[in-house]
Amino acid sequence: MTTTRCGLVAIVGAPNAGKSTLVNRITGAKVTIVSPKPQTTRFRIRAVVMHAGAQIILVDTPGIFAPRRRLDRAMVAAAWGGAQDADIALLVVDARAGLTDAVRKIAEGLAKSHHPIWLALNKTDLIPRERLLPLTAELNAILPFAETFMISAEKGEGVDRLQDRMAAAMPPGPYLFPEDELSDLPNRMLAAEIVREQILRQTHQEVPHHASVETEQWTENDDGSVRVDCTIYVSRATQKAIIIGEKGSRIRTIGQSARIELTKLLERPVHLFLNVKERTGWDEERARIRAIGLEDMG
Ligand SMILES: Nc1nc2c(ncn2[C@@H]2O[C@H](COP(=O)(O)OP(=O)(O)OP(=O)(O)O)[C@@H](O)[C@H]2O)c(=O)[nH]1
After folding, report:
1. In this prediction, what percent of the chain has a pLDDT beyond 90?
2. What's the whole-model pTM score?
3. 65 contacts: CB under 8 Å, gap ≥ 6
4. Where is this region: G3 (predicted)?
């Protein structure tokens, strides 16, 4: 009998800690898009990695976790709820910067969590080894970490071991993402991210960061172009109206800008279709995120 394992690892850390570098190192792909505005980082899926038979879903904080529509909500709930003990928050710390106020604040927030918290001291290539132990001790005084890793995300040092340990720690359970969709996943996420970025640019602060974007369909056409269908989920009708704009003017601008950007990034013609939908149930998601102490930090 084959048993699969699947779980979520939240990558947490102060700005510049090396979170994106670590995610890119683990996935071997550039799937992380930096938003042009500060403080727009939300809780979202950064990457899905298969490793040693486990599906590791790397998620970003803070914000709201928005499962793709096609995922069974009950499965996602199980990932957060039932399997909660086995899921991990990984605190990435810039070892050279050390215990800054930002790191302290995040560590204190995480200390309230019932999740296992792991520590990755990053950028170990930049400081002498003997500085690592005192820093580990200082951090462990704030919160006892279940595991500690010394890594250099940039150089790849220690990352294999971290990944092995993550895979082993994932709870038994079905994969949340079908394996045959994984090859498209970075592109799907890229498209969703580009659309979300345009929403933030075009709506400024009018729509709080409550809109989530999911790529529902990714269709390769014979002529080399790709058709991308994205749904923008909002929690209120007023937000929907803002995103659509007067006679659809804003959604058109969002779509046009996102299409231009995507065409550039994918280096092929893109046909982008956007759909705005209201989705209730945010409160439930938020409660789950609050439960692990990841909300409103950073
Ligand atoms: N020398 C060294 N530099 C690193 C390492 N990891 C990341 N960096 C550098 O640190 C800087 C910040 O890395 P990012 O991965 O963008 O950090 P982040 O935590 O994602 O930052 P935010 O997006 O601001 O939250 C970049 O210039 C990286 O090249 C490392 O292990 N060693």
Report:
1. 40
2. 0.68
3. 43, 44, 45, 59, 76, 80, 285, 288, 289
4. 60-63
Domain 179-281, second-level architecture: 2-Layer Sandwich (3.30)
Which CATH number is associated with domain 5-176+287-291? 3.40.50.300
278 strand-pairing partners: 234
| Residues placed in the known binding site for GTP | 13-20, 60-64, 122-125
How many Cβ atoms are within 10 Å of 188's Cβ, its own excluded? Answer: 21
Asked if the domains at 5-176+287-291 and 179-281 fall in one CATH topology, the answer is no
Q: Name every protein residue with a CB atom under 6 angstroms from any ligand 1 atom.
A: 13, 15-21, 122-123, 125-126, 152-154
What is the predicted ipTM?
A: 0.98
Segment 225-252 shows an average pLDDT of 92
What single-letter amino acid sits at 238?
A: T
